[in-house]
Design brief:
three-stranded antiparallel β-sheet, disordered N terminus, rod-shaped
């Protein structure tokens, strides 16, 4: 499990033992009725979250601009 998985996803287990997962950044349902935790982790690892990507891009831009102003 990646270090972001526990923070980035809300996992629930259904009555039949399958799992659902939702991204906590974009609130997209990433998977439903997945049979194993291993499969769930693989699906989560392939989720490309547009909200998180934008957040990281803006943070990198701000850091670059702050560094440029110090020099």
């Amino acid at each position: 499990m990646s270090r972001w998985t526990a923070v980035m996803y809300s996992e629930t287990q259904n009555e039949n033992g399958t799992y659902n997962t939702r991204c906590l950044y974009c609130f997209m349902t990433v998977a439903t009725a997945v049979e194993t935790k291993e499969d769930l982790e693989l699906i989560e690892a392939h989720h490309v979250c547009p909200e998180r990507a934008l957040s990281e891009l803006l943070a990198a831009k701000a850091a670059t601009e702050a560094h440029a102003h110090r020099n």
